[in-house]
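thoughts on both lines:
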Amino acid sequence: MTVVIGFEGSANKIGIGIIRDGEVLSNPRRTYITPPGQGFLPSETARHHRAVILTVLQEALEQAGLKPADVDCVAYTKGPGMGAPLVTVALVARTVAQLWGKPLLGVNHCIGHIEMGRLITHADNPTVLYVSGGNTQVIAYSERRYRIFGETIDIAVGNCLDRFARVIKISNDPSPGYNIEQMAKKGSQYVELPYTVKGMDVSFSGILSYIEETLFSMLVEITERAMAHCGSQEVLIVGGVGCNLRLQEMMGVMCKERGAKLFATDERFCIDNGAMIAQAGWEMFRSGHVTELPDSWITQR
């Protein structure tokens, strides 16, 4: 049995999770929350992560009932993400790997989301809609690698929602997107907005003034196009925005019309977490991958 511990801290979440052969043994997490109207700056976010990361590490080991000797590999988010938070987590992961005498493994953040979604939902070979604060992509596995079939050409959908929340001073606790969703549930009027789909790509920067329904319609359209291109009958929604029940509902209607299946996870696993890095690390480690110390850098892109 292979045990992998994963360190995630690419944005305002710091999480450490432990996976043992597909079983989530622990997955504690902390969130850096700023006042309404403010975003989170890299330096301040990194300071938050430094203050809590060892506590989260202790919680992960205790909840899993494991000791360092029981761990086979240390995985960490190599990128993409915010530079200062990524460096903070990478430093701790590198130190832990050396102290414990374990191999180190740098993981792509996006792949972590996908592999966690596949583990939890048991989706076989889905067309993936990856929607978060920093990323908006339609992805499918083809010819031995994940390939991007469509993406935003400007800002990510989560960033669009976050910026809208800042403009009208919506609370960041627990997250701007969640609070927008709760407010939208009380709405009854649809406001027509610019609908900007360009082939397989989307543009969100011009519709910051209004938001949710139109954004999600665009995402459903480009996901359906990717499904047709790939001949896929499964959709998996991952990333923090994937928690949105209205997005899931709209995607579900499209899937039903095509006779396809929709897969999604809840906030435990769609929001950035350590277990997703551990799971992707588990898959990579079992395939013979390791990251040598001189190669254990990070990348924001």
Observations:
- The chain has a mean pLDDT of 95.
- The first strand starts at residue 3 and ends at 8.
